Every structure is written in structure tokens, then in C-alpha cells.
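Dissemination and training. As part of the outreach component of the grant, students in the summer workshop were shown how a complex can be specified as a set of sequence lines and then modelled as a single object. The example used during the hands-on session is reproduced here so that future cohorts can follow it. Participants entered these lines:
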Amino acid sequence: MQAERLLEVRNIEKRFGGLTALSDVSLTVNRGEIYGLIGPNGAGKTTLFNVLTGLYAPDLGEFEFAGSNLVGLKPYRVAEFGIARTFQNIRLFGNMTAMENVMVGRHVRTRAGAIGAILRTRSTRAEEEAIRLRSRELLAYVGLSQHGGMLSRNLSYGDQRRLEIARALATEPKLLALDEPAAGMNATETAELRRLLERIRTDGVTILLIEHDVKLVMGLCNRVAVLDYGRKIAEGEPAVVRSDTEVIRAYLGGALP
Amino acid sequence: MATAGDRFEQLRSHPVAAWLGLALIVAALGILPFALASVGTAWVRITNLAILFALLSLGLNIVVGFAGLLDLGYIAFYAVGAYCYALLASPHFGLHLPFWAILPIGAAVACLFGVLLGAPTLKLRGDYLAIVTLGFGEIVRVFLNNLSQPVNITNGPQGVTLIDPFRIAGVDFSRTDTLAGLAFSGPVKYYYLLLVVLVLAIVINLRLQNSRLGRAWVAIREDEVAAQAMGINTRNVKLLAFAMGASFGGVAGGIFAATQGFISPESFVFVESIMVLSMVVLGGMGNVWGVVLGAILLSFVPEILRYTVEPAQKAVFGRMLIEPEVIRMLLFGLALVLMMLYRPAGLWPSTRRKRELSESDQT
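and obtained this result:
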């Protein structure tokens, strides 16, 4: 069974001064799957995210997304092409409401400019109405309907994580890149998150997932890659990766027999 | 507490009350210049200046309040607009274009200057941006001061004199006309004109605030990296904020030149930028009504002090002990300190969130 490739990362290298954060990383994400990215702290997972979303330019290598080469594009262009992300340290627009946060996510798929806003033309009003409608749907989708009017910084931690996902989904991504979405969540919240991610996958959005919660990753992901010191040391189905000796060494140290 | 927007929505569902309230406000604003003129014509001029500052504050509110870009050189755009008008409608170059042609030109040139300032400062934030904008404001003023040689463009420190007043359909804004037994002096006519412009500016501000663009500005203010990741072209959106804010300054400057009939670089010093910024901060950054309130308060209170402090001291002590100017600054400083302690978000802070709240409750 040959799956359709959505993201193809080839030989990415990223250095910060003397530190090589990523070295020769290649991986392929297929359409419709949840692809896990795990590894010890400092392994380069978030750096890879930042390269993929245009925050960093790679020193070497390239990546192709849905048939286009996105290397060197600005983050807002990457979002236009259909990669949306969340952040490890939640980066919501704190003084905007949950609803407004999601509405900002619609920015990239809407057009109204200054003139339209000032004259409040019919098309602007229609677009604004569509933005509101879609944003409400997305809030309901992640289960935040009743919190739409709350400032996002006043939301609970788990709600903030889910709001970030809703905001990212508002950009209509083909690939949703989640950076430790379960960090700091309790067991109930994690279970809820898992259901949400499964639903997103069912609805046709591919997910690239960085996560430390091994149980979540192993239960959810179709395939997993393991990074250690900026290199990919394993890739494959969760069950296979879990028993990989190099992976065990990376996580537990070399002392294990 | 209901927001202005809420009240507006409520009023919309009670058309009679709404129209009655609106009619009352219009009537009050209509009578105001005559009431003021009976105290002294100077007060009409002071009111006009207050409205001009309200226009400036609304423009700066787009840059500082919405987009969060601290601009300490905003008065430069006011200067650009004023000089545009002065040079195109005065004997200096012998040009006498009508005001309806010059105001858009002034707005456009100020807009261009806004982009000129914005483009090199896109990557700067906070303190660094403030320093550069401060420098920009000074550069514009120094240019105006020195562009009298080798070709005399701005007439240097002497400024430009004999600037044309507005003329609409044969009505000259520098003369007094009598209509239905009422004397409409120059300042009174400008007052009505300024009022119309102010209403327009408020509408534009409110509409921008609740638009796709307005949300993008706030998003950039809140977190630029996240805004970019959400697909906002931060470069263009920031430049647009600078340009829109600047064009407000350009229009206000043009009207200022016409009302005064004379301008010189001295009207556009750094302290004026600070003054406008104080109006925005004191009133409530990001809230259109708060900003207008701040501008009107900071324009009127010093003038009221000027007219009361001197007689009060003479009455109590028999002579002047402290200059009104000193007291003005003392009170100004005190007011800002008290503000920061008790109302850090401004006298009338931005409460647009309430609207979103009531909206999502309905669903």
C-alpha cells in the first residue's frame, strides 16, 4: 500500500554557531496520518518545527510540501501553503478573546482590506459574517463554545492548548504541527485531547506531533521518528520504534544491557 | 458596565430613544460654539484645537493603540500635512489650490512619510522603535527649519504666512457671515467643519477596529511570532498601520494650517508628540472614545487653569506666586502618576471584549 506523500524533508541541517541542532534529518509524512516526533529534551524537535514553519532557514537541505518547495519562505507564506502550528510555550493572543483568537486564524483565508473595512462594503460584511460563523464552529469543534468571550489568557491551561489548535485549524491547514500539546495536562485532559486529535485525523488533516507523553504517542501515531542530538535515530511504526535498541539507549542511557 | 457598543446596539432596538438622544447630542454640539463665544471667542479656538488634537490622537491610536507600535515622532505627520497645505495655498509659491484638492494630497504625502518611517523600523520593537521614531520626528522638524536654502521651500524658521483659509461654495472661513441673525465667525465655521471630520475619523477608527485588519493589528501587538505563524503578513500590516495613522495626522495638519493662517516649525516640536501620546494613554489606549476623551481633557484643562490660576492667586495672595505654566506641568505630572497607579489602562479603557462576550452567550 503506497500512501500519498504530503511532506518530504530531505537532509535538513541547522546550526547555531558551533552547535548543530539538526543534522541530516530526512523524513516523510503521508497524507492523513498522525506522525509522531519524539526524542529527549534538546534533541532538535522544536528546531525542526521552526524550520518547517519558516521561522528558521535551514543551512542545508530542503523540504517539499504538497509538491512545493517551501525552503526560505516567510512564516506567513508557509501558512498560506497550508502548514499551521501550535507552540510549546503557548503563544495565544492573550488580550483577545478565545473567539477573536480563532478569527485571527481566518486571516490567511480572507481578503478584506482597509478600504473594505472603512466603507463596510457588502462583500466585507459577508466575509466578516463567514469568519464569525466558521470561528464559532471551530470553537465548538474543540469544545470551547461556552468560553468564546473569555480573554484567552484567562482560560485554563488545557483550554488554552485546545484554543491554539482551533486557531491553527482556522487557517485550513493540510498539515497541523503540534508542539507538545499534552504538556501540563492531567489524565482527563489528555484523554480528551487524544479524542480531538483522532477526530482531526478522521476529518482529513494530517498531524505532525511532538510529544513527550509516550503512551499518547504510541497509542495515537501511525508512524514515529526519534530524534537524538539532532539526528534521526529511528523511524517506523510505534511498536517497532519502541523496541529499537538505539532509542532505548537515547532515552535511558547506554548502561542498559 | 455596558460598553458604548452595547448601548448603541440597545438604542438601535429603540429607534425613538436613539433618534432623540442623537438629536440632543447634535443640538448640544451645534449650540456649543455660540455658548463658548459668549464667554470669549478664544474658547471656540481652543475647542477647535482640542478637536484637532482628537484627530491626531485617533491617528496615533491606530499605530500605538491597535498595532502596539510606540511612535514618539507622530507630530512629524501633522507637520507634513500642515506644510503641504501651506505651500500649496499661500503666496509663498503663489499657489492657491482649493482645500478639497490639498487635503487628500496632504493625507497622501503624510501616508508616504508613514511608510518611509515604517519600512526601516519593521524589525524594531518597544524602546528601539521609540528612539527611531523620536529621531524621525526631529529630522522632519530640522528639515523644515533648514529647507530655506539653497532653494527656499519651507521658508525656514520664519514659517509660512498668509495661508489661505477654507472656501466652500463662496463661503470664506476667515470672515464672519451673518445667517438668520446669527454671526458665524471664522472659528465657528471651522468648528462645524472639524466636527464633521472628527465624526468621520471616529467612524473610520471604529470600523477598522472591528475588522480583519484591526484584529491583525492587535494580534501583532500581542505576539508577532504567533501572528506570522497564523498567516499574517506582518510587514504589510504594520506598514498599513503607520500609513493610516500618518494620513490622519496629514489631514489634521492641513486643517491646522488653514485655521491658523500661519505655521512654522515651532508648532511641531517633540513635546507635541508626547502630548498626543499622553492623550492616547490617558484616555485609554485602543479605545476610540477614551482617546477622544483624553484629547479633549488634555486640551481644555490647561486652558482652564490658565484662566483660573492667575485670578485665584491674585485673589488669595494678592500677587502671582507660581506661573500657570508651572502649575500646569505639576498637575499634568501628578495626573499621569495617579493614572498609572489607579487606572493604568486609561480613563476609559478598551472594553470591546464585552461585545464578544455577549455575542457568544447568544449561541
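The radius of gyration of chain B is 21 Å. Students were then asked to discuss how this feature might be tested experimentally.
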